UniProtKB/TrEMBL annotation:
It comes from the Bacteria. This is Esterase. GO terms for molecular function: acyltransferase activity, transferring groups other than amino-acyl groups. PANTHER family: DIACYLGLYCEROL ACYLTRANSFERASE_MYCOLYLTRANSFERASE AG85A, ENTEROCHELIN ESTERASE-RELATED. Signal peptide: none annotated.
């Protein structure tokens, strides 16, 4: 894999932004790393960080480069600060950045595929919320999304982060039923006439977000969405996420597996 520490200017944020990118590379003599390249532009996973992290965290806490190498997929890991992947009421437009500007810029910099069936999103905690929000809002752009210990019910969790949520949403009572509410977005996906993205959700049974995840799981099942759900003993920590991201990569509906 090639590893790029990419810094660039963002029009939607009005400041310089950062992302880590790993790109597939077939090497004949590299020891200890299996590699593969898809024929054409690279299938791409947008891998999102949590509330207290940044774009470096997946590379620092897991072996994502090694896991992705044998699949021949690119992984894009952007920084969005404590934004909850929203256009903030008192701050930058991070939703516009992550959903519109970032994919276009990344494809202009690197040979990344544009086709829906070659684009995926995943993330942990706040990033699990962001990944689901991407796929539920834009089912025409993403073939699959995965949430690891995701903050999937942010209207319920608003009181946990009052300072952040006031800056992001101004009035938290407006979250429910809005484009920031995954339950509302799930309703919209259930009525979607096109091919719906596949969804993956996992959460440790000792995680403080476990009950939120059970509620969202049950809601998706009521709507008959294409959801794969996994739970097992686990907390809100990197040992769990390092294990589960490997499951996500095995689950991804890559064309080579169809």
């Amino acid at each position: 894999m090639a590893f790029i520490d990419c810094h660039f200017y963002s029009d939607s944020l009005g400041v310089s932004a950062s992302m880590y990118v790993i790109l597939p590379q077939v090497a004949q003599s590299q020891i200890g790393l299996a590699s593969s390249v898809y024929g054409g532009k690279h299938p791409t996973l947008y891998l999102l960080h949590g509330l207290s992290d940044d774009h470096t965290i997946w590379m620092r806490r897991t072996s994502i480069e090694r896991y992705a190498s044998e699949l021949g997929i690119a992984v894009v890991m952007p920084a969005v600060n404590r934004s909850f992947y929203a256009d903030m009421a008192s701050g930058p437009k991070y939703w516009t950045f992550i959903s519109e500007e970032l994919p276009a810029l990344a494809r202009s910099f690197f040979p990344l595929a544009e086709e829906r069936e070659l684009n995926f999103a995943a993330g942990l905690s706040m990033g699990g919320y962001g990944a689901m929000k991407l796929a539920l809002t834009h089912p025409d752009r993403f073939a699959a999304a995965a949430s690891l210990s995701g903050a999937v019910d942010i209207s319920h969790r608003a009181t946990n982060f009052p300072d952040d949520f006031k800056l992001i949403f101004e009035d938290v009572s407006r979250i429910k039923g809005s484009g920031s509410d995954l339950f509302h977005l799930a309703d919209q996906l259930a009525a979607y006439q096109g091919v719906a993205p596949q969804l993956y959700q996992c959460c440790g049974t000792e995680d403080f977000l476990y009950e939120d995840n059970v509620r969202f799981r049950d809601y998706c099942r009521e709507l008959k969405l294409n959801l794969t759900y996994e739970e097992e003993p686990g907390q809100h920590e990197w040992g769990y996420w390092d294990h589960k991201i490997q499951n996500v990569l095995k689950w991804l509906p890559l064309p080579s597996r169809s």
